[in-house]
Amino acid sequence: MVGNRPQFIKSGPLSEALRDSGQDEAVVHTGQHYDRELSEIFFEELGLAPPVHRLGIGGLPREEMLARMQPALEAVIRGEEPDWVIVFGDTNSTLAGARAGRALAVPVAHVEAGLRSGDWSMPEEHNRVETDRLASLLLCPDERSAQTLAGEGVIGHIEVVGDVMLDATLRLAPIARERSRALERFAVEPGRYVLTTIHREANVEPARLHAIVEALGRLAEPVVFPAHPRTRSRLDEVPTNVALAEPLGYLDLAALASQARVIVTDSGGLQKEAYWYGVPCVTVRPSTEWVDTVELGANALVDAAGIGDAVRTARIPDGLPPLYGDGHASARIATALSMLAPMKDTT
Known about the structure:
By secondary structure, the protein is α/β, with parallel strands linked by helices. It folds into two domains: 5-163 and 326-339, Rossmann fold, CATH 3.40.50.2000; 171-313, Rossmann fold, CATH 3.40.50. The protein has helices at residues 5-20, 40-45, 62-80, 92-103, 123-134, 143-152, 164-179, 182-186, 206-217, 229-232, 250-259, 268-277, 291-295, 307-313, 329-339; strands at residues 28-29, 53-54, 85-88, 108-111, 137-140, 157-160, 194-197, 223-226, 242-245, 262-265, 281-283, 299-301. The longest helix has 19 residues, at 62-80. The chain is globular.
């Protein structure tokens, strides 16, 4: 079950691995991201099979979205009769899928299980924790996540598999740099611009968003700012060094992210991608679920007032270790799903 940009990207390598292992899937698109640039373009660019089911449920407050998604997903599950309900990450679609699977006693597999930011003001943290408590198979990106789950006493089966997003990044980033003309479009040179994405509800509150944009305007470099529709609707004017754009497809965003001097974001996925690209990241949040990137000095957590100093001093330390797997997470997940398919959810 998918509903937003990171989930589309994560689902691609896993879909291929499931096919290679002889397993069938029926992709469900909840509609949480309904804008073409945040949805359909990813299926086209990544060569994904179109979703079998499209629910068209998006653009609603969290509780209303969950309330509408769960019965719609339950209807899909009844019709498909799957061995597994597979959910990704920490969105409303993730939690609705987990609740629907549990309600119908179909085992839930959670890809990206065990992540914690410790920030209960974020809806995503609530989604992560509840989903992990509902899941029968918890597929972790690293040992830290597995240890977190063990410490919480979750009842599902825990496996460390790595991060499926790394699978996609290793495969597609070189293609993106070759094919994309995004740098030419924005008239920027490799290593001499800042890429920004801001979309979380706390950051698009008008006063905070204004402070963030003002801070971006004081940077010495040009800033490329592909804006989520919710973000763009709350912006009137931007400083002259900020190129505001519509959301970008995967290839254009990967080309820009992998060649930026610094990435300023509140996206969890881009924090990881920045690390894999070797690009310093400045995260406009008080906390992150990807704590290793901060502890290793590749990512800085700031508020709006700290953006300028963090961008000016951002660098990648020497000798960073690999994080979140080796690019073969999808194959491990397909194997786990196949081997544990007979398992029934008896909790």
